[in-house]
């Protein structure tokens, strides 16, 4: 498995496809929320097994978002690899801390990676989330 910063048209489209499968199809989030027009201002990360895109994430300034792994590839370290790649990028680019809005059901995953909850539960796309932060 490898994680790349999406630069080619294929890597960018692969990123968007994974997010579409996970968020728009599986979680039934409105596509206008998922594809919010910010991708051009973000650093996109795409995870591959061989040539198959299996995971995606993005970094907007210091905010991690759109972390997704295709259902059949979960619990295989893809999410952790994506987060590690983002943290390495942040360190190399002098980003002192990362924040994210974690869906409540994956809060433990981020805590295991060193992220800390700040604040109360809130709704985003009609799903419970918490703000989490990690200093790099």
Find the CATH topology.
Aminopeptidase
* Average pLDDT level: 97
So what's the CATH class? Alpha Beta
- Sheet with most strands: strand arrangement: 1-2-3-4-5-7-6
Instruction: Give the N-terminus to C-terminus distance in angstroms.
Output: 24 Å
Q: Which overall shape is indicated by the principal axes computed on the Cα atoms?
A: globular
Enumerate the spans where pLDDT stays under 50 for 5 or more consecutive residues.
Answer: none
* Sheet having the most strands: 7 strands, mixed
Q: Report the radius of gyration as a whole number of Å.
A: 14 Å
Helix run count: 4
What is the tally of beta strands? 7
Structural class: alpha+beta
Q: DSSP strand (E) fraction?
A: 35-45%
Query: So, the CATH homologous superfamily?
Result: Gcn5-related N-acetyltransferase (GNAT)
- Provide the helix percentage: 25-40%
Topology pattern, helix = H, strand = E? EHHEEEHEHEE
The CATH architecture category equals 3-Layer(aba) Sandwich
Written account of the structure:
The protein has one domain: Aminopeptidase, CATH 3.40.630.30. Helices cover 32% and strands 38% of the residues. The protein is built from four helices and seven strands, in the order βααβββαβαββ. Strand 3 and strand 4 form a beta hairpin. It is globular. It starts with a strand and ends with a strand. The relative contact order is 0.15. The model has no long low-confidence stretch (mean pLDDT 97).
């Amino acid at each position: 498995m490898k994680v790349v910063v999406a630069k080619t048209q294929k890597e960018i489209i692969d990123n968007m496809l994974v997010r579409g499968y996970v968020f728009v199809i599986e979680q039934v989030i409105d596509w206008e929320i998922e594809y919010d027009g910010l991708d051009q201002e973000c650093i996109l990360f795409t995870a591959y097994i061989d040539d198959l895109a299996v995971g995606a994430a993005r970094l907007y300034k210091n905010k991690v978002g759109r972390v997704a792994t295709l259902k059949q590839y979960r619990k295989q370290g893809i999410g952790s690899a994506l987060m590690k790649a983002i943290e390495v990028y942040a360190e190399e680019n002098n980003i002192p801390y990362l924040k994210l809005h974690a869906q409540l059901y994956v809060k433990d995953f981020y805590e295991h990676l060193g992220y800390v909850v700040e604040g109360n539960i809130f709704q985003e796309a009609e799903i419970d989330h918490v703000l989490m932060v990690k200093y790099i």
